[in-house]
From TrEMBL:
It comes from the Bacteria. The record marks 139, 184 as: Important for catalysis. This is 3-isopropylmalate dehydrogenase. GO terms for molecular function: 3-isopropylmalate dehydrogenase activity. It catalyses: (2R,3S)-3-isopropylmalate + NAD(+) = 4-methyl-2-oxopentanoate + CO2 + NADH. Mg(2+) binds at residues 216, 240, 244. Binds 1 Mg(2+) or Mn(2+) ion per subunit. Residues 4-341 form the Isopropylmalate dehydrogenase-like domain. InterPro entries: IsoCit/isopropylmalate_DH_CS, IsoPropMal-DH-like_dom, Isopropylmalate_DH. The keyword Nucleotide-binding does not apply. Keywords: Amino-acid biosynthesis, Branched-chain amino acid biosynthesis, Cytoplasm, Leucine biosynthesis, Magnesium, Manganese, Metal-binding, NAD, Oxidoreductase. The keyword Glycosyltransferase does not apply.
């Protein structure tokens, strides 16, 4: 059956890396007999410019009837003081589709080991997943901005915590059997509840070890002892910050994909980074984050494990061959790298 993939290229480097991801998908599809259609929709700043709204109704409707969604990146400095921002569209999309479970894998490519700012012995064996709660917490609480005061509300219900913790345990069961639950339980009420729920869910998984960590010290340990972790689960804001921090391990945001899942309905795949306005339009962005997001889509949404493995292998081979974009210390352009990955498929 032909699968419908809705693409949201967005802003900045978004359209460039989306084109790269789709070129790789087009190259791998015939090898695995994967039939699909692409429906490209306006989103983010591009949609504000065209239609006055970052998430137009027909874009939302298309995503709701998709089999999977690919998103590149949104945002840009021109919207910093605008009444409507591209980021609002992203949050509205996540909420509308119920995409509560954001999976952000962190691994070190053999070929990139020497590029990490950290010592080789520290990043040896790093392979963990950040599971970020994506539709609750302070992102979605009430926001009030007055002239002299401001307020952001952080809300979590038992059920919202329970379902994301369960996702973390399920993932851990299929890999290193260890969950690190991250909170600020020494201060925040939401974190106190978080820890209670994590302990409760852990009882259902006697084969998986649960450890708790406070977010401040975890931020430090992620850099000093990154190979200690298997699955890290945390609330929306902490997960946003910690996952960008984790990109220091491979040395660049440009290789970091993600998947976001709902209880029902289509999943969404996107790099963890933003629109990189500083390099937009120069043709030098690293497309690997988008290309690996395509691989995650093939595996998670369509069960196409072989296609996903082909892409991941081709990325490894390309890096080993020394085809490196600027963020990796090389000279290769986005299209050089994309072509090399397609050649290695
Ligand atoms: P950013 O992630 O866009 O960029 C941070 C740094 O990483 C920049 O130096 C950038 O050049 C570099 N970088 C990011 N992706 C890269 C790639 N693929 N190849 C090479 N280098 C790459 O963060 P920012 O500059 O703080 O934010 C820019 C805009 O993006 C903001 O409007 C922000 O809100 C938005 N944003 C969007 C998303 C998203 O669409 N999901 C995520 C994060 C930030
Ligand atoms: C991300 C981004 C978004 C977030 C922004 C653009 C709203 O930083 O996907 O990590 O904070 O979730
Ligand atoms: Mn972020």
């Amino acid at each position: 059956m032909t699968k419908k993939i809705v693409t949201l290229a967005g802003d900045g480097i978004g359209p460039e890396i989306m084109a790269a991801g789709l070129a790789v998908l087009a190259a791998v599809a015939p090898k695995i007999n994967f039939a699909y259609t692409i429906e490209a929709k306006a989103f983010g700043g591009a949609a504000i410019d065209a239609a006055g709204h970052p998430l137009p109704d027909d874009t939302l409707a298309a995503t709701q009837s998709a089999d999977a969604i690919l998103l590149a990146a949104i945002g840009g400095p021109q919207y910093n003081d605008a009444a409507v921002r591209p980021e609002q569209g992203l949050l509205a999309l996540r909420k509308s589709l119920g995409l509560f479970a954001n999976i952000r894998p962190v691994q070190i490519f053999e070929a990139l080991k020497h590029l990490s700012p950290l010592k080789a012995e520290i990043i040896e064996g790093v392979d963990f997943v950040v599971v970020r709660e994506l539709t609750g917490g302070i992102y979605f609480g009430e926001h009030t901005l007055n002239e002299r005061t401001a307020r952001d509300v952080n809300d979590y219900s038992y059920e919202e915590i329970e379902r994301i913790i369960r996702i973390a345990f399920d993932i851990a069961r299929g890999r290193g059997k260890k969950v690190t639950s991250v909170d600020k339980q020494n201060v925040l009420a939401t974190s106190k509840l978080w820890r209670i729920v994590a302990d409760e869910v852990a009882k259902e998984y006697p084969d998986v070890t649960l450890e708790h960590a406070l977010v401040d010290s975890l931020a430090m340990k992620m850099i000093t002892n990154p190979s200690d972790f298997d699955v890290i689960v945390t609330e929306n804001l902490f997960g946003d910050i910690l996952s960008d921090e984790s990109s220091v391990l491979p040395g660049t945001l440009g290789v970091m994909p993600s998947a976001s899942h709902a209880e029902n309905g289509p999943s969404l795949y996107e790099p963890i980074h933003g629109s990189a306005p500083d390099i937009a339009g120069l043709g030098i962005a690293n497309p690997i984050s988008m290309i690996l997001s395509v691989a995650m889509m093939l595996r998670d949404s369509f069960g196409e494990t072989t296609g996903a493995a082909y892409i991941e292998h081709a990325v490894h081979q390309t890096l080993l061959a020394g085809v490196l974009t600027k963020d990796l210390g090389g000279q290769a352009s986005l299209s050089d790298m994309t072509e090399a990955i397609i050649k290695h498929l």
